[in-house]
Design brief:
about 250 residues; 5 helices
Length: about 250
């Protein structure tokens, strides 16, 4: 007795036919749109920039002017800005009939890495080394004092350093507890394997350790409200249940 043939193959070929028709329709419509002169790009609008200058970003997109709006792909846009390390991403959109819109997300520095020779290089939250041109003067960042050689720093590449990793881990804990505290710090350095924070306005030192950061910042905030500290003072909060205020010479 022969088995009845199931009708799955009919539905498969019907599904395949629908896919072919949809793809054909897409490319047909796209080909039609690309052929119309009415969609020639006459204006490029830029948004999302902060440190980067508008004219600088427009310069790289100037070749799109006069081209058909539907002939430009997302990858075409990305290729224009691929070598600009400060550009993290670009989103492209079309405003019919003739406006190309580009929305930028910049890489922002969160620290300056200080090399063994004393040179400073900004890095972002992904540890990517950023360029440090004059139009980033408004970017005032805390410094991480390292033993990295300047020759080992490459713009656009990730900094591979254990101490930088420790600082970024501490940074995340500080942000989670008090996002404004980091603005009070001008420098991080290592002393006897302890991370030392340098207060920005007076220059006194703070040692938080690397655990229980939230509770330690609360204690420090309470302490800061009731007394002042000057350069040469160390506020040591590394131990969970004790507070030590001493001079740097002790």
């Amino acid at each position: 007795m022969s088995k009845k043939r199931r009708g799955y193959s009919r539905y498969f070929f019907l599904f395949l036919l629908i896919i072919i028709l949809l793809v054909s329709a897409y490319y047909g419509v796209r080909s039609l749109l690309v052929s119309w002169n009415i969609f020639q790009i006459e204006k490029i609008e830029i948004s999302g920039y902060e440190n980067l200058e508008k004219d600088f970003l427009l310069y790289f997109a100037r070749d799109f002017l006069g081209k058909n709006l539907f002939s430009i792909s997302q990858q075409d846009v990305l290729n224009k800005y691929d070598n600009i390390v400060r550009v993290k991403s670009v989103e492209m959109s079309r405003h019919i009939p003739n406006v190309l819109k580009l929305k930028f997300q910049e890489r922002k520095g969160i620290f300056q890495v200080k090399t063994a020779e004393g040179n400073l290089f900004p890095i972002d939250e992904e540890k990517i080394v950023l360029d440090n041109d004059n139009f980033y003067n408004s970017e005032v960042l805390p410094v991480i004092d390292t033993n990295i050689k300047t020759a080992e720093i490459k713009i656009g590449e990730v900094v591979d350093d254990f101490f930088v990793d420790r600082i970024l881990e501490l940074y995340e804990k500080i942000l989670a507890a008090d996002k404004n505290f980091i603005d009070k710090i001008s420098e991080f350095y290592l002393d006897d394997n302890q991370i030392v924070l340098v207060e920005a306005s007076k220059g006194y030192k703070i040692i938080l350790g690397e655990e229980n950061i939230a509770s330690k910042l609360k204690r420090f905030s309470f302490l800061e409200q009731h007394r002042t500290f000057e350069a040469g003072i160390v506020v040591d909060l590394q131990f969970p249940n004790s507070l030590i205020i001493r001079t740097e010479d002790e």
